Amino acid sequence: MARDRLYPEPTGEVRMSLSLRFAAGSHKGMIREGNEDSGYAGPRLLAIADGMGGQAAGEVASSEVISTLVQLDDDVPGSDILTSLGTAVQRANEQLRVMVEEDPQLEGMGTTLTALLWTGQRLGLVHVGDSRAYLLRDGVLTQITQDHTWVQRLVDEGRITEEEATTHPQRSLLMRALGSGDHVEPDLSIREVRAGDRYLICSDGLSGVVSHQTMEEALASYQGPQETIQALIQLALRGGGPDNITCIVADVLELDSSDTLSVQLNDTPVVVGAVAENQLPLNSADNAAMQTPAGRAAGLGRGVPQQPGGGFGPPGSGDDADYGSMPQDGSFGAYGDDDFTKQRGGRKWLKRSFYTVLALAVVGGGLYGGYRWTQNQYYVGANEDHVALYRGISQDLAWLSLSKVEKDHPAIKLQYLPPYQRKQVEATIAEGSLAGGREKIDELAVQASACQKEELRRKAADSAAGSVPSDEEAAENPAGSPPPTGSPAKNSDNKPKATPNPGPSLSEEEQKVASNCGKQ
């Protein structure tokens, strides 16, 4: 797939232009009853949305977002592509909010979104959720988006490792998604492209099953985009296909008007996933069906041709990879009819009810399990002007607070901690156990006590150094000579003078950390 743009040079010559060749594919996987992913690949816009919300809400959310963004594919490329992307995302989020207001049964629906907008020389990237975008350049695959998940935040804060994140029970819990509030904050960035770059956008049905290294090997092969899509989906199915699998592969090519490949490519957009599966043929007499979100996204006003046999890829996006013969249920590509077969009964309503109850139980159990996990975590943080030990993690999930004060320590004042340690406490210090939290509290208590005593000793020394002798003392003790040995110093009332207080003494532990008191 490509759109050629040739630019005349001042000399009258024509220089090479960059073009996109793309393919898209989607599969419901081996576990899910339906497909809640939606994908769109066109000459300017590449986008994937992974819906959630149960029943039909997930597919409605993803379809609606794709249908809202798809007009960007027709817009004339502008200089401010990030503004265009940001505005479209907010419009899509608002549309989901209005739909929930009109139909309360859609409450709780939402969707991720990862999209690339092509200008001919650059790509604008918008990202919300845990779908991903990757760049393969010079044979090296790099993830260019960051997951907006609870687990990724724990990784960023150093509480768990990348390896632990891959198996964490709450790795799919999103912190950002379209439809989750009145306003959404997407990640927006500009990507400078090179000829030879290959981009991948995918839902977590692929990235959560197939390893980074395996995806890199598949993308670095010499196959075209459509063949690569087939290979990637086969890999995800081979890994069990626990979720819907949707991906888009786009190659950046350098072409001129005489290039044979440029003649073979076309601008036909491709719609896959929930959007494609829910649409009716464009010449259907039932035009009312085209008013659905899926229908609006699929219609596009372009006359998108149906793929034979329910195929997954666009015509002209690569050599024929036999997508038309790829079954959507039970097998995929080279797998036989008996591979991945699911038992089917006649009482579909009972089966669907069972799966609905099971899904709700899994989601509820997962959320409860995640909350229980947070209550086994501890951290040290600030509580107004002093230190406290907290149970949980230092963040809130919507209306739910995930932490509470386990034990307050008002005696450990922040003002007496060294600046570097004060900053650590204010940013919170994570501890994996109650014993670890108590140990950190004891350490801070010794440090604060040492610094407080050092400050008192310094004040006492300053006070003693600032005392001035009286006139009688100066006459009796000229030239600052010391008083006779054995005779205590006296004041004007002929009473012995009190020895200046050196300040509180430091314990052995406090002496070891006293040097840290001024440390920045």
Automatic annotation (TrEMBL):
<feature type="region of interest" description="Disordered">
    <location>
        <begin position="301"/>
        <end position="322"/>
    </location>
</feature>
<dbReference type="InterPro" id="IPR036457">
    <property type="entry name" value="PPM-type-like_dom_sf"/>
</dbReference>
<dbReference type="InterPro" id="IPR001932">
    <property type="entry name" value="PPM-type_phosphatase-like_dom"/>
</dbReference>
<feature type="compositionally biased region" description="Gly residues">
    <location>
        <begin position="301"/>
        <end position="316"/>
    </location>
</feature>
<dbReference type="Pfam" id="PF00481">
    <property type="entry name" value="PP2C"/>
</dbReference>
<dbReference type="InterPro" id="IPR015655">
    <property type="entry name" value="PP2C"/>
</dbReference>
<protein>
    <submittedName>
        <fullName>Stp1/IreP family PP2C-type Ser/Thr phosphatase</fullName>
    </submittedName>
</protein>
<feature type="domain" description="PPM-type phosphatase">
    <location>
        <begin position="21"/>
        <end position="252"/>
    </location>
</feature>
<feature type="region of interest" description="Disordered">
    <location>
        <begin position="457"/>
        <end position="520"/>
    </location>
</feature>
